[in-house]
Amino acid sequence: MNKKCLFIVAFLAVVMCGSGQIKINLSQPNNDLVDDVGTPGAQCAVKKAHQLTDLEFVILDTLKANSKKTYSPNKQYKGVIYSFPQEISTFVGLDVSIHTFMTALNNPRSVVYTEHLDKLPYYSDRIASYYGTVCSGFVSYALGFKAFQTTYDIDEHDFMTYLRDQSAKGIQLADVLWQKGHVALITGIRRNKNTGEIVWIEISEAWPSGARRRVVEGEVAFNKMLKDGKWKIYRYNNLEENTYTPWTDFVAVEGEQRTPFQYNDAICPNKGDKSCYITGEDVVLNIADGYRTIEVYKDNKLYQQIGIGGSLDIVLKDLPYGDYKARVTNGKESSDFAYWKVIDVQVSVNKGKVVFHSENATPIYMEFCTISGSRPTWAWYIFTQNDVKNGYVKVSKRSLSRLDKKKSNMYVKVHFECDYGRVINKLVPWNKK
Questions:
Q1: Is the dihedral of CA 170, 174, 175, 177 positive or negative?
Q2: Spatial separation of the C-alpha atoms in residues 164 and 234, rounded to whole Å
Q3: Which segments within 111-163 are labelled E, that is strand?
Q4: Rounded-to-integer distance, Cα 379 and Cα 13, Å
Q5: So what's the pLDDT on residue 247?
Q6: CA-based nearest residue to 129, from 79, 168, 72, 71
Q7: Contact, 327 vs 336, CB < 8 A?
């Protein structure tokens, strides 16, 4: 929690929550209050959660993110968009960087405004923005999970510990609050330093109105919330493996200051700056009027020069894998560069094995899913170093049996990671025996 809050006294702070407003009395002398610091892993989780809750942005066109939230153009919003892009695996933070997300929002012809996941060629069963996150994606990013974990994963798997003390007395920073269909993260605990009693507890979460922080005042109120909402409290076993990378161009959290950022309005990939495409996927460059030529560089060498005709959306097909950048010129001056990567992605299924390879990205994990991206709680697997070295995993007999019993068609999805983010393969059908 920002330490400046300790000096705000003699008035009521109001924090919005789902059912209305909670009034927090901060009139108690600030020298009687102390914030829990938490472990290094917990501190990373809190900062990452606050990145998503505190991020401010302006929408350029009407955007219906979910059934309960429509964003209006030319208005400023706070908190990452609530959306469930599980089909294409574009969760902000986990798969897509904040830099890429923000530059896509700044581009009125980007996928954020042109792609609608509730319409073909997508198969999502709910309205969703191309980029965004949900409660489980929010927690997955904040805690540093290697794989996206659903709410059901968090409740059922042994990487989480169910706390014996299911009350305010037992909590720590970065503990997970779970109820059926929703998870949230404890990101602030303030105590009376003389008595040790908790004054308030901050909860950060992804909510249909956008990622947010909310506060519950006091231990009694928190315990009542647990009982009324049938919450469970979990702790991530590998929390101290968590790491944190500041994104101070766009959002500053505890101990940080934002640095000025100048958007490149002359040219931007349709997925945003520093975005990822896979081999065989079209790369679309959205450019501003007034330029004659595009210069495309691959691995820092001039790859292609394209004359700009009537269209300001330039489609690049069948680019080989590599690091790309491009700028536009009008003969006298040139724009700044825009950046993207084309990732080599190779995935196949062969005699009960999932085979995978990439020349310029690291395979992270695989999952079995339906065409819309939904998966059973057991149907994911994080690769070991030996798996990556071997280039394949053999599906266990138990998983094979479960796959054979599935009524819906199942597909193999492998997640690959590079320094710009993550990509997935085009889904490969899993053929039942």
A1: positive
A2: 9
A3: 160-162
A4: 44
A5: 85
A6: 71
A7: yes
Look at the block and give the residue holding tokens 């979990």: 234
In whole angstroms, what is the distance from residue 311 CA to residue 315 CA? 10
Alpha-carbon distance of 416 to 409, in angstroms, equals 23
The structural domains of the chain, ordered by start, are 3-52+139-241 (no CATH), 54-136 (no CATH), 267-342 (2.60.40.1220), 344-429 (2.60.40)
* Three-class secondary structure of residue 400 per DSSP: helix
**DSSP character at residue 173:** T
3-class DSSP string for 178-215: EECCEEEEEEEEEEECCCCCEEEEEEEECCCCCCEEEE
- Structural tokens at position 341: 């990567």
* Euclidean distance between CA atoms 256 and 246, whole angstroms: 8
Phi, psi of 20 (to 5 degrees): 145, -130
Spatial distance between the Cα atoms of 184 and 200, rounded to a whole number of angstroms: 16
Cα–Cα dist 392/352, whole Å: 10
216 band by pLDDT with thresholds 50, 70 and 90: very high
pLDDT of residue 141: 98
Quick count: other Cβ atoms within 10 Å of Cβ 8?
12
Distance CA 202, CA 205 (A): 10
Cβ–Cβ under 8 Å, residues 45 and 234: no
SS3 content of the chain, % helix, strand, coil (to 5): 20, 35, 45
pLDDT at 270 over 90: yes
pTM for the whole thing? 0.91
Do residues 231 and 177 lie in contact, with contact meaning Cβ atoms separated by under 8 Å? yes
Consecutive H or E run containing 398: helix 397-405
Largest CA distance in the chain: 72
How distant is the alpha carbon of residue 164 from its chain centre? 30
211, 138 contact by CB (below 8 A): yes
CB 58 within 8 A of CB 74: yes
Quickly tell me which residue has 């720590």 as its tokens.
Answer: 172
Q: How far apart are CA 134 and CA 111, in angstroms?
A: 19
